[in-house]
Amino acid sequence: MPLLNSGIFSNTDSTDKTVRSLGESEVIERIRQWLGSVTPATPLGIGDDCAIIETPAGMKQLLTTDSITYGQHIDGSVGAKDAGSKLIKRNVSDIAAMGGEPGPALLNLLMGPDVSIKWLEAFISGVKEASARYRISIVGGDMSELEAGHFSAALTLLGTAKQKPLLRHTAAISDWIFVTGTLGGSILGKHYAFEPRLIEGQWLAKQEEVTSMMDLTDGLGKDLAAILPDHASAEIETKRLPISSDARTFEQQDGKAAVEHAFCDGEDYELLFTLSTAADIDLFESDWKKEFPELELSRIGRITKAHPEGRYIDATTKKPLNWATGFEHFKKR
Amino acid sequence: MPLLNSGIFSNTDSTDKTVRSLGESEVIERIRQWLGSVTPATPLGIGDDCAIIETPAGMKQLLTTDSITYGQHIDGSVGAKDAGSKLIKRNVSDIAAMGGEPGPALLNLLMGPDVSIKWLEAFISGVKEASARYRISIVGGDMSELEAGHFSAALTLLGTAKQKPLLRHTAAISDWIFVTGTLGGSILGKHYAFEPRLIEGQWLAKQEEVTSMMDLTDGLGKDLAAILPDHASAEIETKRLPISSDARTFEQQDGKAAVEHAFCDGEDYELLFTLSTAADIDLFESDWKKEFPELELSRIGRITKAHPEGRYIDATTKKPLNWATGFEHFKKR
Fold first, then answer.
1. Which residue in chain A has the smallest CA separation from B131?
2. CA B333 vs CA A259, B23, B73, B267, B330: distances in Å
3. DSSP designation for B271
4. Residue A282, by phi and psi: left (phi above 0), alpha (psi -120 to 50) or beta?
5. What is the pLDDT of residues A71-119, one digit of tens each?
6. Which chain B residues contact residue A50 at CB under 8 A?
7. How far apart are CA A134 and CA A156, in angstroms?
8. ipTM of predicted complex
9. Chain B positions in Cβ-Cβ contact with residue A48 (cut-off 8 Å)
10. B117 at the A interface (CB within 8 A)?
């Protein structure tokens, strides 16, 4: 290989900006700007759980991609089969967040030459089991070589939406904010043992009063910002935040309050959605209970006009919630 | 991070099988077996240039993915903009190989935190220019973190086929074998300056006598095997192999015959296709010349019944062609 440092990587003593110095959100925003006219505006372009493709036949297709990288999403503590299953489920969760149904998929593998065949077989068995469960066909893919000690797998998943897909950016002032399940501490196990909320997402997409939806991957504190309209805040009823037992266990370990874990930890893979103020909440909640008696549903707050003190406000004290918000990739931790 | 060696990577002194000890083709074959019922048989599954998706509306969609990885496909000698452009063109070439038209795409980036923003901007400008040229929309994507010093970008490209897509596995005994352009020595420049044969592929897909098609990525010597029927050989008229000027330059540098470079080097991104013996060759070739006066077309041989001495036979001497065949990823070189 020619010269190693050819401008692609910056030395630590360089003043060049790097992916780390900007952080993930800013890098994504710049890429969107650089792409300019070749990337369409939301909802057809970058920025929702899935891209929506209008086909000539008038059908709506969903398209999403998500990856599993050694050192970032998985490590030696996760079994190979669980890792393969997680790759499928992460993508199914994106389809669920639009109310869609998963379809065919492509599998991209990037691997060092030292990846063990035994491990890879177990990884693929996880891919297979989860694919069968969600009726996904693996129709193709690609394989690339990385240096020894590296592994990354990306899945691209197509889906279809029977009804209008639920988007992120369509909530309004006064809408109620809901989450499914319980939140926080997923690192203790749920981050690979989760169940994507596929049938729940499809059911929610059929309810006309549901105004927006997304899945929780980076933590409620970060993801909630994506569904807030411009010039709006969220009033959170902190006592209604559904705290998982893992968040409580985590509190014992690191001393950070369980409710803060529920608000800030990533990889919950629950649904975050908003309900129009025109809806009959009691009826909606009782319909939910009939459909999904075993999955908790929590009304955690409401969208309000922009509050002078911040985007997230404690509904009781009207003071800003001063928890660190979510997970920013690439930044030094 | 917990224990580094958790079974995903094998030590060099281990007797475990690894991706390197099996090589790319065998790993792909095993993955196909492991996936079993969740991967459909060709042409709907793994093994052609694109997957073909039958939509409910009866339209045929194409789906392909290909990546650019630092250290494998690009290095410090390739400009960032050329690398971005190459990522798009590699995928367009796969759509071309089915006779399709490119559509929306997803961009996955895997990057070390030290990737320079200046370099990334130039890379994306290459993605943008090439996307605009082939009327591709970047509708979404994903970003993951790798260790410092690493960069990989994968594109997943959707396409549509107006007519029946041309497959790889549909050639018959006695069909003529053709290639477009000139072959060999692409490492001297063409491997990123190439032009995907999109309009040529679409034209070929409309000609009823064309029986199979693929694009040349791993080298004619390896790729030709993919279109040979079982129990068949290819008789190659070595004097008709279209040798590029780069292959001749390369011969001066490494002493390997230019014709061997043409047969064995990778990344030509030309089309390899077969023509039925029922076709009027003279008419076909003159039609080609009218449509594409500037792109060479070479009839390089013919498919025959299995020859006892090998799959590739010199048409003149009837002896096996004893050139090393193509590029096998992961194997030590």
1. A38
2. 55, 12, 15, 17, 9
3. E
4. alpha
5. 887 777 778 999 999 999 999 999 999 999 999 999 999 999 999 999 9
6. 140
7. 14
8. 0.84
9. 140
10. yes
